[in-house]
Amino acid sequence: MKESYRGMAIEGTSTEAGVERERRAGSRLYTSTTVARETGIPYRTLMDWVEKGLIAPIVQRQGGRKRFLFTEENVREALIIKQLREYISLQQIRLALADLREMGQNPLAGGDFFVVRNVRGERTIIKVCGEDEAIELLRKDPKQIELFPTREIEGIIAGIKPDRSAPEPEWES
Fold first, then answer.
1. φ, ψ for residue 122 (rounded to 5)?
2. Is the whole-model pTM more than 0.90?
3. pLDDT tens track of the chain, all 173 residues?
């Protein structure tokens, strides 16, 4: 449901149904003041991210005022955005999240993010989605990429038995 905050349209789950659903699921809810204090994100910055649709908390009306209640998932999202913000612009984060949504991904749920700089100095985001799958973002055409965990290589090497017929290496002293 679209709500507004300071004249800006925001996405959010409206009031009692959202609160009740989260409580039934066993989720804790946090006020915006608590989230700002506990995460170290300035209150105004947090509310700016809400206005821009990066985070969609539950909107609860109280006597003509709106109160935003953040789920644990919303807090996780805020912390990920905070970390990404150290390396890339908010606009790049918005583009990356839009790419993930377009690919049918819940942008900030699960997985690790890496910010990588190429040889030209351009930054891209890689979201690791699974043990052997990642998505490269901030491209004209975001794409899935395949990962190969090096722990598999280490397992293969550990399983190789030494060849007794091989000559001993000669070391220079």
1. -80, 145
2. no
3. 444 444 433 344 445 555 565 555 557 899 999 999 999 999 999 999 999 988 889 998 888 888 899 998 899 889 989 988 988 889 888 888 777 777 776 666 667 777 877 778 777 777 777 766 777 766 665 555 555 555 566 667 677 776 777 677 677 76
Does residue 112 lie in a domain region? yes
Q: What is the DSSP letter of 54?
A: S
Tokens of 141: 């055409």
**139 lies in a domain?**
yes
Alpha helices in 43-164 (DSSP H): 43-51, 72-85, 90-102, 150-159
H or E segment and range at residue 15: helix 15-24
Q: Domain residues for 124?
A: 87-160
Q: Are residues 4 and 69 in the same domain?
A: yes
Residue 53 within any structural domain of the chain = yes
* 166 inside domain: no
> Structurally, how many domains does the chain consist of?
2
